[in-house]
Amino acid sequence: MEHNEIYLMYSIAQQLVKEHRYDVLYLNNKVEEIWLEKYENKTSTVVRLSASGFDWKNHLKKDIGIVFQKAGALRKLLKGKDIHIHNVYISPHTPIDSWEILKKPLTVQDKNPIQMKIYYLSGDEIEPERNRLEQNIGVTFINDEDHISEELMETTTQQYKVELFHKVQEKQKQERNVFNYGKPFITYFLIAINAIFFLLLELNGGSQNNVTLMEYGAKYNPLIMDGEWWRIISSMFLHIGLLHFASNMLFLYFFGSLTERIFGSARFFVIYMLAGIGGGIASFAFVTNLSAGASGALYGLFGAFIYFGLFHRRIFLQTIGRDILILLGINILLGFAMPQLDVSAHMGGLVAGFIVAGIVHFPKKKNVLLQLGALIIYVALCIGVFIYGMHQNEANPIYLLQNMEQSIQEERYEDVVTSATKGLENPEEFEAMFLFQRSYAYIHLNEIDSAIADLEKCIQLLDKPSILPEAYYNLAILYDQIGDKRAGEMIEAAYQASPTDDKIKEMYEKLSKD
């Protein structure tokens, strides 16, 4: 009887959901088909129940093929890498021709194979097939279809349908609520703060002016080494040029608002700030250039999305997941292809964002051990990378040159000599520049012999005067002061390399007359 088969299908489904913690993946009342899943030990056990019957083996075989196709399409919604499908047919009749061979386990070979077992509950085979299903999925069903009236069976079937349908609706509501926890107030606030700082830069020398950027708090390693650690934070709100500012704010508008809706305003703010700090520390440790921008914090949002995807894999892949992963991949490739981008800040922000999402976790949910562990990891990584950055910068020739430039501007010439001497221990390709800067400091310290010695070594290292005509100019001045006739030779070389430089031109004309 048809009512008996429909009741049996919904009775099995109801028991799997209520007693054995299966989730409803799909419910179709029109064709009486139900898909259920239980995730354990990295394996998805899927029970597909169908009240369809088949007259011929080929028809059954065709439906099995369709189930495999549906399973492949549903793969991204399933939690486990290993998928075991138990395909259960409940029908008053079986195929006319021999079909029992289809009961053998079937497998679709793939990177993560899909395995399927077939059950056909019909007539005298209902009890044996149900027992086989119970044994394979490790459950025991209550079998009462032979002891209740047809009227009660129909009423109970309708009740089960309604309860399962409500389960589906409740699940869909929970999934919708995941994206509607908070409103993007902090996102708009951050955009406003970034806009204010961008206008301040533009009105006070320009956002592409290095002096202005340093004045307003860009990441500059020598000053951070001198104790201005706050630059790791302030640099998050500065941008270099309109395109940099506009692209980052557009990203923040779309993805910041989405992150804030998922995690809530307070958690979003913590993720944004701590990811930005993580990106800034990574940039300090691995990049010596002056830099600024919200990229570290923005990549932290990618990290938060990935964290979200680990805990809400099905929702993530059904909605934003694929687009997020593609966009992240494109941005990572662009970062390595475009040397002007601060890849270290990007990667640091990405990792930090993922870890910080673990610290704050999700609204109305707690996982104390996970959150505490994430906090310890974040603090340890930040401290460790910062200390590593301190050691790296102390020995980095580019940092030493930057530090010397800063010392020259502040007229700390003894510090220039100290830094240059240290840099000359491992100068890489910057030996000539270290010698030139040290000679400049020696001149201001009135150590003329030392300055001349450094400049003579410096010009020996230069392939041509045009690389550093100032070295020839300074040496010409010193030679002239001590009466060395080589002054004319040096100023000639400087003038040929840079004839438009007024001070070189003036010195050249003076010595030419002499």
UniProtKB/TrEMBL annotation:
<dbReference type="InterPro" id="IPR022764">
    <property type="entry name" value="Peptidase_S54_rhomboid_dom"/>
</dbReference>
<feature type="transmembrane region" description="Helical">
    <location>
        <begin position="345"/>
        <end position="362"/>
    </location>
</feature>
<feature type="transmembrane region" description="Helical">
    <location>
        <begin position="181"/>
        <end position="201"/>
    </location>
</feature>
<feature type="domain" description="Peptidase S54 rhomboid">
    <location>
        <begin position="227"/>
        <end position="360"/>
    </location>
</feature>
<feature type="transmembrane region" description="Helical">
    <location>
        <begin position="229"/>
        <end position="256"/>
    </location>
</feature>
<dbReference type="InterPro" id="IPR011990">
    <property type="entry name" value="TPR-like_helical_dom_sf"/>
</dbReference>
<keyword id="KW-0645">Protease</keyword>
<dbReference type="InterPro" id="IPR050925">
    <property type="entry name" value="Rhomboid_protease_S54"/>
</dbReference>
<protein>
    <submittedName>
        <fullName>Rhomboid family intramembrane serine protease</fullName>
    </submittedName>
</protein>
<dbReference type="Pfam" id="PF13181">
    <property type="entry name" value="TPR_8"/>
</dbReference>
<comment type="similarity">
    <text>Belongs to the peptidase S54 family.</text>
</comment>
<dbReference type="GO" id="GO:0008233">
    <property type="term" value="F:peptidase activity"/>
</dbReference>
<feature type="transmembrane region" description="Helical">
    <location>
        <begin position="268"/>
        <end position="287"/>
    </location>
</feature>
<dbReference type="Pfam" id="PF01694">
    <property type="entry name" value="Rhomboid"/>
</dbReference>
<keyword id="KW-0472">Membrane</keyword>
<keyword id="KW-0378">Hydrolase</keyword>
<keyword id="KW-0812">Transmembrane</keyword>
<keyword id="KW-1133">Transmembrane helix</keyword>
<dbReference type="GO" id="GO:0006508">
    <property type="term" value="P:proteolysis"/>
</dbReference>
<feature type="transmembrane region" description="Helical">
    <location>
        <begin position="323"/>
        <end position="339"/>
    </location>
</feature>
<feature type="transmembrane region" description="Helical">
    <location>
        <begin position="293"/>
        <end position="311"/>
    </location>
</feature>
<feature type="transmembrane region" description="Helical">
    <location>
        <begin position="369"/>
        <end position="390"/>
    </location>
</feature>
<dbReference type="InterPro" id="IPR035952">
    <property type="entry name" value="Rhomboid-like_sf"/>
</dbReference>
<dbReference type="InterPro" id="IPR019734">
    <property type="entry name" value="TPR_rpt"/>
</dbReference>
